[in-house]
Every structure is written in C-alpha cells, then in structure tokens.
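tool=predict chain=A
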Amino acid sequence: MIARDVRGIRALTRARGRASLSDRYSAVFGLAMLGALLAQPVLDAVAAVQGPVRPDRAGAGLALVALVYAAFLWAARTLGPVVLSAADAAWLLLSPLDRRAVLGRSARTLLLVGLVAGAGLGLAALAVTGAPDHLAWRLTGALVLGVSAGTGGMALAVLAQTSDPWDLALRLLIAALVVAAAVLMLVAGAHVLAAVPAPAWSAVPAALAAFLVRLARRALPRIPARRLLSSSARAGHLANAATALDPSLLTWIAEDTHWRGRRLRSKPWPALPGAPARRMPALFVPMWQEVRRLLRWPGRLAVLAGAVALPAMISRAGGGAGLVAVAVLAGGLTAAACAVSGVRWDAGDPAFSRLLALRRRDLLAARAVVPGLLAAAWMAAALAILPGLPAALLWFAPPAAPALAAAALRMARRAPVDHAMPVLNTAGGAIPTGPLIWGLTGLDLALAGTWPAAYALAAQPADLRTALILQAVAGAGVLAGYLTRTSNR
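tool=predict ok
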C-alpha cells in the first residue's frame, strides 16, 4: 500500500499523470535504433575474438581490464551510487514513506548500469584471452562472468553506502584489483592463458553476484539519509555540469567533496637553512602550500604512483610507439594538473594571492615548480619501466616538464565554457567553438612544448642529442613565454 502511495505521489508531481502512447513509442523506437546501431559493432567484436591470441599480450590485456573494473567500482563508490533527484531528496527521502520504494527507481537504474558495464567487461576479457574453440560456449561464459562482476560490484557499492565495514571491503577490493593488474602485467602471457578458468566456473561468481544483489536490495532502507543527501547533491552538480557543458565544475565538485568536513591541523612553516626560525621566504610559500595539499590528499598520490605502469601495459598489450608516447605525455600532464589547486584558487579569488605580496610573474613561477617536479618524476618513472626502451630517453622527462607545468597552469586558469561563441558548420556536422576552445586551452602549450619528446618517443631515432636540445629549448621557452604574457595582463 505504501509503495503504491509512492507511485501516486510521484505521478502527482508530473505534468501529466501517465506517459502517453507517443512517449512510450518514442522510448521504444529510440531503444530499437540504439540496438540497431550497436548490433554491427558488437558482431564485429565477437567475430574478432575467434581464434588464439598472442600469449605475450594476454597478461597486459587482462591487466587493463582489471584496471577498468577498478575504475568502475571507484566511480560507483564516489558517486553514491544510490542517488535521488533534487525533488525526491527534498520531499520524499525524509518522509514517512517506505525507503525501499523511494529508492526503487535508482536501484533499478544501477542494476541496468551494472548489466551493461559487466557485458562490456566480459567481451573485453574474451578479446584479450581469445576463443580458440567453442566460441558460443566461451562467449556465454565471458558474458555471465562479466555481468556477474558488474552487478556484484554495483551491489557491493550499494552495501558500502550503508556502513563503513562494507565500504572498507570495497576499498580493499579496488586495491586488490590494482595489485592484480600489476602482477598480470609482469607475469608471462602463457601462464595467464593457462590460468584462465573454464566457462563452467562462471556459475560461481554468478551465484555470488546474486547473493550480493539480494543483500543490497535488503539494505536499501538502512542507507543513512545524510549519505543519500550527499550523493544526491553530487549527482545534481554532475548533471548541471553535463547540461551546461562546463567540465570545470567537476574540478570544484571534487575539491569541495574532499575538503568538506575535514579537520586540518595547523603546522608551522619549515625553517630553511640561513633563514630565521619558523620563517620562510615569500617565494617558497606557494610551493609549500601545494606540497601540503598533496600530502593531505594521499589517495591522489597513490593513484598517480600506480598509473606509471599504464604506458608499459599499453606497450605489452600491443600498442604502438606513438600510442605509448601519447600515454607518457598525457600522464605527465595529468600529474602536473594534480598540483595546481593554488593556481585555481588564485584565479577564483585573487584577493588571497595578493596577501603574499608577490608579483604575478613570481607567484606563477613559484606555482609552476611543484607541477613541473611532479610531471618530471612521473614521466621518468613511466619511462624507466617501459620494456625495450633506450635509457637515453629518460633524459627527456626533465626538459619536457616545464612545458607541461605551463599547460597545467593554463588549464587551471581558464574561464568557464563560453556558449555564446559561433558554431562551425563542417562536413562532419556542426562544431560548437566554445567547448572546443575550452578543451584546447592548455593542450596547445603542451603540444607546442613537448613535440620533440613526442617525436623521440615515437620514432626513437639513433641520434637523440638534437631532439633533446630542441626539447630543452621548447620546454623552457613555452614556460617563459606563458609567464611573461600572463604577468603583462
């Protein structure tokens, strides 16, 4: 009776009580068209997995699948996963209505997401292990295993929203998947193919997934209201960012979510040699602020440390030298972008930066030190573990870091997307220039300042001295030019 009341209350909030026949027809037609568009790519992917694969690529391929699954679980844990709309969170969540009935629509959506994501994971796992015989039998087993992993992982994320012990179990599972990915990358592919379970074993994870889904359904009424309100607020912010096509809001959402409710201890400035006790030159203050932010966010540093293996995984999985070069430079840029919170706050509220009594150029130069060091360290570590890479290419990490630091600073200072800009009509369709220019802001400096390193990593010429000199000039020139132009504004 209460569940019917929930449906009735939701029907009253709509402009019309029930969906019309045309609305249902549009929904069914849209699903049919989506199925028709995806049918051929799925059939091609299934046909491509038939036959054996190279053993040296199996380990790296399964490592990438494990990392994707870990990222899926992390995203589910970060987003909630159980969320409500703003109206339901404000009016229905704290009402006397049955909590399971209120959350039923969100739970069904999560189940559908787990099914689709799990099917994709199963096809990816089958693609990297191959199907030398009995394609239909192996495809069925891979799909059952993937769907079990998707739905079971989503159910575990729902249970983690109910209590801290389940949340600890989910975090341990994510950490175990990352460790397993590292082990799979190092283990020989022949051993990996020999250890792949038979399709009949997929019944075990299916039973475990069904058990977790049942537990999650029973645990829906026990999810604390404060956690539901917090996850619903995050989902609302994400929806606003997607609707407004403004990805910069996602950064502020992540910052606010991390620092909200945390108690931070105040510590004195470290004493430098030759400086009075508990005093630090003003030029070192911005650097120390960024270092403190990084140390207070250990999870981000742990993810960056684990991500150094991605270029090696791509190389072992059969990726070309060009793709590996893009992965190395993109990882260096990502590492630099993780240490520009101070620049982002300076751009949002310049009054606080003026309290340091530094010129704009000196302040930006100080803000660029930590991102540059972090980018250089990440690229050096990634290049050091790449298989078959000449040791001389490690020297390209330090001269490429200044350009990546300048690109990260420019990305942190860019304004929101300007949707009033014109739209370009091309042969491939209309392209809005506002999001396009926003996305290229910062990447232009990275491309202009790291093209010698990209050429050296992709082509690996015999003489690297010319490319190294060009990289040093390009990296320093891009950073100096950016600091000069920004300080003159």
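The first strand starts at residue 423 and ends at 426. The chain has two domains: 46-241, 245-251+282-487.
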